[in-house]
Structures are given as structure tokens and as C-alpha cells.
Amino acid sequence: MTITASAPGKAILLGEHVAAYGKPVLAVTIDLRAYVTVSKRKDKKVVINAPDLDIKDYTMDLSSDYLDYREASSMLLVSETIRKTQEYIRDSSGLDIFIRSEIPLESGLGSSASIIAATILAIATESKFKLEKREIADLAWQCEHMIHSKSSGVDPFTVTFGGLCLYKKGEVASLKVPELPPIVIAHSGIKSITRGIVEDVDKMKKNDPEIFEDLLNLAENIVLTGKEAVENENWVRLGSLMSINHGLLSSIGVSCIQLERLVYASRIAGALGSKLCGAGRGGVIVALVSEEGRENVRKSLVKVGGKLINTQPTEIGVKIEER
Fold it and tell me: Most buried one in 67, 214, 251, 273, CB count within 10 A?
């Protein structure tokens, strides 16, 4: 039997870097997805192909307990996800696994979490093991710790449950609105490497604990005010809060010239608000826009060197694709 599972990417609208310190985050899933196809083998090997991750015919021998931590992070991510999932469902069958992702890697859009969540669901479903979404999210969070040592859990929980989510300390609440607002996402052309950036933010916390605590409390206020704006469908207010949040992120050193150029170009072009998205120092920006102003923002971002990523919010989280 061949099973394909998929999971969406995500964009953080408010709250980068604060979830690791117990503060809430407002995030939304996007309609770019990672797809994982699994089929059973007759032997005990797992053979992985993932062209987007530069993985070709990589063979794991499940009869061995050895895991090579010198592997590239992408291979470590996939191999550890497979191991943890098979341990959890108690099925060590050999598998052929094919992974493809529409989500740009190292961009701040949750590609790692999407691949992890889809892999977990595909393997479990192929083994006829029913997993609740909470179980998928918890497992995915454990796996993400392999590449992001201070993973807050926001990415795996958001891509698993889908939609507009308020996340805090391993708990996620879905915010229901009749229609999700349009967004524009543009890439800076620079990869965003999460681990080193998170470590630098943690150093700032240790060097200036009182100031950092004030920043955390302000960020929490911004996110909770943003939640109210969403519930009232006040997108102008939400956009304003996104711009304020970007200022906070810039103040802790996670922005860069290329991101600033995109953020300000989008605002000048009429965006309701905009900010870097993800760990920062590269990757993407997200702009909240009106329907009538969307095209003007897109054109302005291209003019200053941004690479548009065509996507919109979705309410669909991790799922099994129809056969």
C-alpha cells in the first residue's frame, strides 16, 4: 500500500523568538505544502529520496541503533523522524520514502516542521496506526529539537492543526474567522539559519535580562492585542501590530538590510503592515494587504529585489492525500 501525507507551511504574523520563553505566538498556515509518500519494503531497510533536500537513495538500516550525528541537518531531520515515529508506533518495517516540498527551505516558512509532520502521518497511516493531531504535533516537536535545540514548538503545532493559531507552551488554539486576510510574502535571497540566530537571542537575554524581560512582556501584549484584532476582523489594527512587532525584532538584532528594504517597500506601497517572518537575518517578509492593494505591494517588492512566493493562508493542516 502506498500512502501520501502532506502538511502546510506557516507564516508567523506576531511573536517570533518569544515562544521559546513561554510567550504566545500568532501564526497562520499557508497553502504551500510538503508531501511525503511511503510504501512498505520486503526487507528492513528504509530508502529515502528527497530531491529538494539533496537526498538520493539514502539507505537507513533499521537493524542498527547507530545514528550518525555528522550527517547533514536535512538527513538527520528525516532519519530521526523516521526512527522516532517507528519507535512510537512499534513498527520497524522497511520503507520506501519519497519527499518533495513546495515550501522554500531555510526561509522562515516552516519547511522542516512540515516535512516532519507529513512523514509522521504517512508512516503511521501506512502501518494502520491511528494518530491524533496532538500526538503528531508532540512527536514533530521532539524531532525538531534535533535541528533547533531551543525549538518552541510553534512550527510543528501550527502546521499540524492548520489555520490561524494562537500558540503558547505546547498548546494551540484555533482562531476562526469567516475569511483569512490576504498576505504577500517575498524572499530576501538570503537563507535564514535558525539555530545560530536563536543562540544569539539567548545570549542577549543572558547579557541584559531585565531589558529582555521587558521586551518579552511587550511582545506578549502585541500578540494578545493581535488576537483581539483577529477576533474583531480588524485587519488594519493587525497590520499596525505587525509593523510594531518588526521593530522589536529589529531591536534584538535579527533583521538585516535586505529584510528592511523589503519591509519598508511594502509599507510605502500600501501594505497594512509588514515584518520579517521566522528566525530572521534572511528568509522572508510577510505583508498584510488589502485585496485592492495587493498587486501594488507585489510590484514594489520585486522592484527592490524581493522574490515573490505565491501563497495564501489556508485552514488545512496535516492530512492524508486522497488516493
Answer: 273
CA distances from 191 to 157, 183, 284 (A): 23, 21, 9
Q: 60 with 46: CB under 8 angstroms?
A: yes
What's the CA gap between 305 and 106, in Å, rounded? 18
> What is the rounded end-to-end Cα distance, in angstroms, of the chain?
10
* The length of the chain, given as a count of residues: 323
Tell me, what amino acid is at 45? K
- Cell output for 248: 522589536
- Check: pTM over 0.85? Answer yes or no: yes
Please report, as a single letter, which amino acid is at residue 251. S
Q: Which residues contact 67 (CB under 8 A, 6 or more apart)?
A: 76, 79, 80, 83
For 264-320, write each residue's pLDDT tens digit.
999 999 999 999 999 999 999 999 999 999 999 999 999 999 999 999 999 999 999
Q: Domains of the chain (ranges plus CATH)?
A: 2-176 (3.30.230.10), 183-309 (3.30.70.890)
Q: Which of 257, 261, 254, 306 is closest to 280 using CA atoms?
A: 254
Backbone angles phi, psi at 100, to 5 degrees: -140, 150
Residue type (1 letter), 119: T
- In eight-state DSSP terms, residue 94 is -
Q: Catalytic: 54?
A: no
Catalytic residue among 65, 68, 96, 155: 155
